[in-house]
Each structure stands twice: as structure tokens, then as C-alpha cells.
Amino acid sequence: MALFDGICAVSGCRFSLDYELELGFYIGRSNELGTPVPVDMAQGQVFGYCLLNDWSARDIQAWEYQPLGPFLAKNFLTSISPWVVTSEALAPFRVLRGTECDILPDGQLDLSPSILRELDWVQASVHGGQRMPRAAMTRRVEEALRHPAVRCLSHPLGRLIGRRPENALDLERVFEVAREHDVALEVNGLAARLDLSGEHVRDALRAGLRIVCSTDAHSVRGLGNMTLAVHTARRGGATAADVVNTMPWHRE
Ligand SMILES: [Zn+2]
Question: If you classify domain 3-90 with CATH, what class do you get?
């Protein structure tokens, strides 16, 4: 009988327990034995989902790992939740594939067209080289707005309250091009940004634009910035009908 830290590694109490949170699938449609299902058809085979947990004893795992190498004595149970959530019930809760993409100094985006084509939502942002002259900065942003993948311009003026002034940008011209290419403007709710401001939201709505309220969150806590984004949008007279992320998703 082997001992690990004075505890029997084969039987007895476990002091370090681990469970893995995994996802189980219920297959609702059969396929011919030996015939693989192509990845892009896999979704159609799934009837529903459940939680699946693997339970293991970490102290046995540690003992096995050295010097014996991995065995599976540590795994003593796999359990599945009795609740099956059907694919149909989850259909309205789709997670979009999106990114915030840098606008390079010449107005190109920093991701390749093949990646951008795969995405549902692309926000384009100026993150560096913000002290460009007004005409060059406006051209740079205009160029990005014309890109067919771009759906929204993030923090359009790039200010950081008390730390960095607004970018020199002809906002009126940007609004015009955004309208032409059906690109929304962000109301960024990060307390240091609030960009667009309430006043600029009003101008954007007058120019016939739609806005996106977002958080610029870099943590779970940051998601609370949504309140500031919504209040800023309201200050500019926006209602839910002007805010793209209150609307159902339609992929063109
Ligand atoms: Zn950004």
C-alpha cells in the first residue's frame, strides 16, 4: 500500500478534490456507422446540452504524476446534470464573434481580410499615433469606415479626461462617411473616456447615425461601465431605438 504525505494513496480520505466543469452534448440525429459528420454540420446533430463534471483526487494525481506517470486512478466519477437545455431554447442567445481592430496610420486595419471575413462584428479603433494633423487623421478614420467588415467606430475622439485631449478629427465628415457605409458610432462608457460625449451623441443622431453603448471592460467589474454609456447616450437624447446593441441580430 503506497503512502503519500502519510495518507494512503489508494484508499482513505482525500484532502484535495478537484472537479472539472465541462459541457455534455446530447446527439439527436444518427449518422451511418463509420461515416464522420463534417464540422460545419455538427451543430445540426445536437439536440441539447448539459453540464458534465469530472471528479478527481488531486492528491492521488500528484502522487501518480511522480514518479509513476499519469494513471487514471485519480478519476473516480463523471456526473451529468439531469437538466437538458435544448438547442432550440439556446438559439436566441447567440454569442457573436467579434473584435476591436486597430486602425493603422494609413487607415488599413491590422487584421487580414480572411480573419475579418469570419467575424460577425468588427469595431475599428485608433489606439496609437493620435497626434496626427486633422486632415490626415480624418482620412485615416474615413478609410477604415469604408472597410466592408467594419460595423462600429470605437471611442471616436480618443480623449482621456484630464490626461489626453481629443484627436484632431473632422467629426462632421466622419459622421457623413459612417452614415454612407452604415457604420455605428460607439458611446464608450469607460469613466475616463465617455466618448462620444452626450453632446456628440446628439450631433450623431441628427446626422442619422446609430450608436453602440459599450463598456471598454477589461474585467468583470468593468462591465458596470454600461451604466455610464447608457446615461451618456441618454444625455444626447438617444433612445433604445438608436442603440444597435438593443436590437436583434440579423446577419446580412
Ligand atoms: Zn479601444
Answer: alpha beta
